[in-house]
Write a structure and sequence with these properties.
The structure is a homodimer of 328-residue chains. Chain A is an alpha/beta fold and 328 residues long. Chain A has helices spanning 38-53, 92-100, 113-123, 129-132, 189-193, 195-207, 213-217, 227-235, 239-263, 279-292, 312-323; strands spanning 3-8, 12-18, 24-31, 60-65, 69-70, 75-76, 107-112, 139-144, 148-154, 157-158, 267-271, 302-305. The longest helix of chain A has 25 residues, at 239-263. The two termini of chain A are 20 Å apart.
Chain lengths: 328, 328
């Protein structure tokens, strides 16, 4: 099979041509230029599909988007980092179908980006047989980056819920009395443990003028502290940054515990920029899970790193197009 | 069909004979006498099945248990309120099969009690077509009582996970820095919002000697404050108790928000003793959900009361035996 996967991100648009085993045959990248609004962004998606389709026949197309999407209706609901996309929804699949003119010969599938990455890691990545050493059927994926996204595979199928909105794991509240979240709620996993949250904690320390490598690295400017500054300072042994990474790992461990208790998966796959800190994050995360998990779950799951990197969502769009997950 | 459903509780053993539509044809109750240990409790289960089977043919038997259970293997893992049941597990289904002597003619199904109640409310109760006015496929059930239990229906099937341990929704952490939980973790939904947690908050106020109806009702003894005392004092207008019910509703709302973001269900069914407080609980819970839910989810779900009462788990054991959910 020849499948096209399109990963619509807030800054870049990535398209791949792949076979049903996730082998990438061609690749295409352009800036999203999201500020130009939905019509121009959709133009770029259609153009990219056209370029990728030139090389040969197309059997299916999958598109992933950075926000709530109804895969059954093919509608995208105002992704926060795509300005101008209305909250009431854009019928992306219908528009693409009309403009591509393939009719019913080529199936079109819509999927949320974190769900896509979950499906990709399950099908081709950390959850696949070649990495796990066995076939698994239940997986939880978390990407911990500027925000936190999630996706869940239950008995081999993507968890979608009634409207395809399920698995918004970054907006599970882990501190009922916690920090305000960008979603309007407070204490969400994302508000407490994302890279943005980690940067906020680092900035508070720099602003307090406590001696820390983070201040040197950010030129004394709290606004210049990002998650990378915190993790690099910790890597160099800065005590304040180390304490923050310990806290970050604890909070990630709380999230992992929650999703193990919720889904009883065989594997939890962690991806996203914050996980590049490696053991600084994974050690306290694992220790937290170890101390908070209920006895019956011990030995039933593994916590592993994502392996597909920045192509995971595009590969997930391919996987969604192959399996039919994400549409009806 | 003639199905027997056995609800093994910490204090009572309830057995019913029902048809596949959940119509109860006979009923049997005895005390569990859990302190006598697993062998005697299993004797009582076998005896009860024998009594219920006397009236006519039996097609299937479902048993629900108050703790972690592997429905695929038929094993019960040391339920906290069944003393003497080992953590390494009791092969309840195999034992029952051997002792009943039905061979393969009668299927035996094991299910966790909260999962059973979820399945019952979905099949015969608040989530059924006659109550919802439409067919639904996605439901979250929460029972808020001494502890908090949960069960989830996804696309018409019970969420079980890899070992049947999924949906331990009472042990999703909603306050990473919160109170110790009986499970060993801290800040679990159960530790923060169960009837036991509500009683703890009431007891703290009574112990502080602030004037409150709760003190009068408990004879000034903090140990005599239970969830019912708090809710009855609130019903009578006691300001301290009203504030606690407001907090309780907020915390329940946090949990409901989490599970809507996780599962995107069409309905959230709330049962258990604490929900008998009615509007005192539901009003702040709904207000919290309203303010914390993400825009895309608005109008996609309802929050309703459970309708099956204390027979829900036994009916769920029947439903599990009918659908095959809870075994393989």
């Amino acid at each position: 099979m020849n499948i096209i996967g399109i990963d619509l991100g807030g800054t870049k648009l990535l398209g791949i041509r792949a076979d049903e085993d996730g082998k990438v045959l061609a690749e295409d990248r352009v800036p999203t230029l999201a500020h130009e609004g939905p019509d121009r962004v959709i133009d770029r998606i259609i153009d990219m599909i056209g370029r990728l389709a030139k090389a040969g026949p197309v059997d299916a197309i999958g598109i992933d988007v950075p926000g709530p999407a109804d895969p059954f209706k093919g509608i995208v609901y105002g992704p926060p980092n795509l300005p101008g996309w209305p909250e009431k929804g854009v019928h992306l699949l219908q528009i693409a179908k009309d403009r591509l003119g393939y009719g019913d010969k080529v199936s079109l599938t819509l999927v949320n980006d974190a769900n896509a990455s979950a499906l990709a890691e399950y099908s081709y990545g950390a959850g696949a047989e070649k990495f796990m050493g066995k076939k698994i059927r239940h997986l939880v994926f978390l990407t911990i980056s500027t925000g936190i996204g999630g996706g869940v595979i239950i008995d081999g199928k993507l968890l979608l819920g009634a409207n395809g909105f399920a698995a918004e794991l970054g907006h599970v509240i882990i501190d009922a009395f916690g920090y305000r979240c960008s979603c309007g709620s407070a204490g969400c996993f994302e508000a407490m443990a994302s890279g943005t949250a980690l940067a906020r904690e680092g900035a508070l320390i720099v602003a307090s003028r406590r001696p820390t490598l983070m201040a040197d690295m950010a030129g004394g400017d709290p606004d210049k502290v990002d998650a990378k500054v915190v993790s690099e300072a910790a890597q160099k042994g800065d005590p304040a940054a180390l304490a923050l990474m310990e806290r970050e790992g604890m909070l990630v461990g709380v999230g992992v515990t929650n999703f193990v208790h919720t889904f009883n998966p065989e594997v939890v796959v962690l991806g996203g920029g914050v996980t590049h800190a490696g053991d600084l994050l994974f050690k306290p995360a694992r220790a937290t899970v170890e101390s908070r998990i209920m006895p019956a779950y011990r030995g039933t799951f593994e916590i592993v790193s994502a392996v597909l990197g920045d192509k995971s969502a595009a590969l997930g769009a391919v996987a969604a197009a192959v399996t039919g997950d994400g549409r009806r």
